[in-house]
Amino acid sequence: MRAGERFTVALIGASGLLGRAIAGELASALGAKDWRVVQTARGRADARRVKLDLLDHDAVRAFLRELAPDAIVVAAAERRPDVCENDPALARALNVDALSVIAAEARMLGAWVLSISTDYVFDGAAPPYFPDATPAPLNAYGQSKLDGERALLASDPAACVLRLPLLYGPFTDWNESAVTSLTPAIVRSADPANPPAPMDAWATRYPTLTCDVAAVIRGMLEHHAKGATISGITHWSGDEPMTKFDIARRIARVLNVDAKLVAQHTPTDATPRPRDCHLDSGRLETLGIGRRTAFDIAIAGLLANYPDVPDQ
Ligand SMILES: NC(=O)c1ccc[n+]([C@@H]2O[C@H](COP(=O)([O-])OP(=O)(O)OC[C@H]3O[C@@H](n4cnc5c(N)ncnc54)[C@H](OP(=O)(O)O)[C@@H]3O)[C@@H](O)[C@H]2O)c1
């Protein structure tokens, strides 16, 4: 960036659960400064978000060349494990090939890429995981994200990967997050006419608020803007371990419903999932980057308007 120019960020996938939180954080925190954020979406493109299909490589190249951003945040992905398992070609096209195109273009333009990845690159057998731990994904989603990380960093070693665990945050549909998606079953189970709701009590998760991740990403962008670029692999995670059974009990308490929940102590998902992928966040914490909101406070805020939430 030359003196007098604005620091330009391309936010790819700004319409998703995480992308919306990043857009909100950058708008409120950076609005007064000399930054410009250009958001993209595919299905949910609108007046705020440029339409960009990552499967159209020519369009991706044209968009980036015209914008010439200083930084590119990639929050677009296929992140549903069952969809990736059933359609590995789609997972690869979005999570690997599209990222390769962005990486090559970014390198040519001198733009810094910050790409979001997942704790599912690990098998969950030996937590906590540091950024240099050996990945061993158990499912097609984790494998595609790992392949994307590798393609990005091979093409552009200055780029950065931010791995995250289970996310939750402001939502437009219960199923946007595996945290809020538990709510309808929790509420149904409180009706005496309905059977108890089974909830996974096998896997330990670290639910992480999208607004906190957005603050982390703002911190990383600010580092880059002042010439202290963060490269390679980084992790960010909430620090409250809980199973989905624990999450469901907390949601029931917030909603004040007498839920009938049954703990399931063996995995039942069709797609294999890791047991405990606790990510060590020390690398970013050492740089003074990070924010954690307590789960009970955050979920109470998110469910405050229940049941006036758009139905799925
Ligand atoms: N959600 C989690 O619990 C979780 C956990 C760990 C890591 N992550 C990672 O965090 C990142 C964000 O996830 P998320 O939960 O925010 O995902 P999401 O809510 O499913 O949003 C996906 C985003 O990708 C965009 N997109 C999908 N296909 C596209 C295409 N062909 N071209 C352009 N854009 C496309 C969507 O745009 P439209 O909707 O406008 O089409 C949307 O903006 C992903 O990298 C994911 O792997 C998520």
Radius of gyration, Cα only, in angstroms? 19 Å
**How far from one another are the termini?**
43 Å
**Total number of strands:** 11
Oligomeric form: single chain
User: CATH superfamily assignment of the domain at 7-169 and 208-239 and 274-293?
Assistant: NAD(P)-binding Rossmann-like Domain
Q: How do the helices and strands follow one another from N- to C-terminus? A: EHEEHEHHEHEEHEEHEHEHH
Counting helices, strands and paired strands, the structural category is: alpha/beta
Stated plainly, the CATH topology of the domain at 7-169 and 208-239 and 274-293 is called Rossmann fold
| Spatial strand order of the main sheet | 3-2-1-4-5-6-10
Question: Could you give a short account of the major beta sheet?
Answer: 7 strands, parallel
The shape, in one word, is globular
Q: Tell me, what is the CATH class of the domain at 7-169 and 208-239 and 274-293?
A: Alpha Beta
β-sheet strand percentage: 15-25%
Poorly predicted ranges (pLDDT <50, ≥5 residues)? none
Mean pLDDT over all positions:
94
CATH architecture of the domain at 7-169 and 208-239 and 274-293: 3-Layer(aba) Sandwich
Bound molecules: NADP nicotinamide-adenine-dinucleotide phosphate
**Count of alpha/pi helices:** 10
Percent in helix: 25-40%
Family: Belongs to the dTDP-4-dehydrorhamnose reductase family.
Pfam family, one: RmlD_sub_bind
Domain RmlD-like substrate binding: 9-305
Cofactor: Mg(2+)
